[in-house]
Amino acid sequence: MTQETTALGHSTAVRVSTDGRSQSGDRVHSAARAAADSVPVIRTGPTGITAATPLVMITSSGRTVFYGDPSPATVRDLVEELEEGTVPTADADAVVEHDPEAASLPVPESGPLSVGRRDVLGPCGWVAPLEPADWSFVSTAQTPDAAAEAGLLGRGRGDAATDEPVANAWETASKTDGDPVVVCNANDASDLPTGDDTLLSGAPMAVLDGIAAVAEYVDAGDAVVYVNESRTDLYADLREAIDAAADILPIVPQLVAGPDEFRASEPTAALEALEGADRTEPRLQPPSPAKRGLYSRPTVIHTPRTFAHVQRAVAEPESFDADAADPGTRIVTVTGDVDDPATVELGSSGSLATAHGAVEMDGAFKMACVGGVLGGITRNLDVAPTAQSLRAAGLGTDGVVELFDTDRCAVETVGQRARFAAKENSGRCVPGREGTKQLAELLRDIYQGSFESEKIRELGRVMRQSSNCQIGAHAPRPVTTAIDEFEPEFRAHTDGRCPSGTCTEKL
């Protein structure tokens, strides 16, 4: 049969949620070959739960049966049983009763998919990602007043309004002389945060709709989606999504690929890359991008996570609490010493500890790094996933929780991150260029018997206050928070002993 392109509107359907891998396609083809014309087979995007990918969902009249990573032969058997008029439930991972008109993935009572919420992530894995017919666009009739009034904060390292009210940047851009432009910064060379990729692969129409809504708000005539040049599969899917929605969206963004470099996702470095600069490095601020951005135009630059939240705030303003310090939800990737990483969505009243339930760890939990490669080290995940709570705990807000088991050495873990910062910084400012080198050297000295805790903390304070780039400002965070949690482990290394036994060759 011919594979369907729309997922909604069918009372009976077979959905195959994939992440683009070839084995995922095998399940789609197996289902399509076994199905008759009466049973549509739809390939949907990722749900965010890697362990259950590919995920086959068989829906009939408000009942969906979930099968995680079934073999192609099993998929054929399941579809053939459905063809015979029976919804197969034997050996299913979950069975969920739901509204037959559901536009969001039905959530099982247990298992990784049940962790957290599925608000912004709701369409991921359920709708056909490249089909506009599966999406109700808000940008054609509404501007994001609700998102502005709700006090939505920017999300992710690549956002020019990270943890700040996005409406401030919108107002500045709209009132500054010049023609405003909107940029969706989806270029992240780090493989740790996968929330943006999940949205772009699973619900690209939500992101495009959010971009167009913001463009309408600031009266921008142009928009750009900036992706990593190494992500050729994502680029192709986004090209198809943009083309498919071109006749619907009031603003059709350009799609541009940028360097596969960690620094290239910093907001102002992204603008440099988009302008074709020979060297990708952050700009000195002020002025902010909202005043002087892409080609000196007023520029609003957000991540896909932010634009997807904007879209939801416009579509369902009642789901945002304007009195909350951090309205909406946070999308978090759980990774590290786990069998399979997972991307989940947490409410502001929840806890990061909830995210632990979406994965299986290789060993016993020792510590976590929260906030990306330069996040904060902690032993306590009982922290609300809001910008304010994370910052108060000395943690990062980039939407990553790395779980580490007892085989990990705190000194080695933060030493690797300090070396990363020393290598990946742009060299634009002294704290970023020289401070990161000094930090890495001070950590190497520990293995030679010298642990200068106060010197490390003072260096970190100076770097945080005077760095022009995010790398220089955030590089001390893993080190200082690890010292707070594991100072005895640092001192043990000066005596030639690694408590975890992983640094034997260095001591």
UniProtKB/TrEMBL annotation:
Q: Which GO terms describe its molecular function?
A: 4 iron, 4 sulfur cluster binding; metal ion binding
Query: Matching InterPro entries, A to Z?
Result: Nuo51_FMN-bd, Nuo51_FMN-bd_sf, Nuop51_4Fe4S-bd, Nuop51_4Fe4S-bd_sf
Q: Name all NADH-ubiquinone oxidoreductase 51kDa subunit iron-sulphur binding domain ranges.
A: 411-456
Q: Which UniProt keywords apply?
A: 4Fe-4S, Iron, Iron-sulfur, Metal-binding
One Pfam family of this protein, by short name?
Complex1_51K
Segments of this protein annotated with the region Disordered: 1-33, 274-295
State what protein this is by name: NADH dehydrogenase subunit F (Ubiquinone)
- Organism whose genome encodes this protein: Haloarcula japonica (strain ATCC 49778 / DSM 6131 / JCM 7785 / NBRC 101032 / NCIMB 13157 / TR-1)
Family to which this protein belongs:
Belongs to the complex I 51 kDa subunit family.
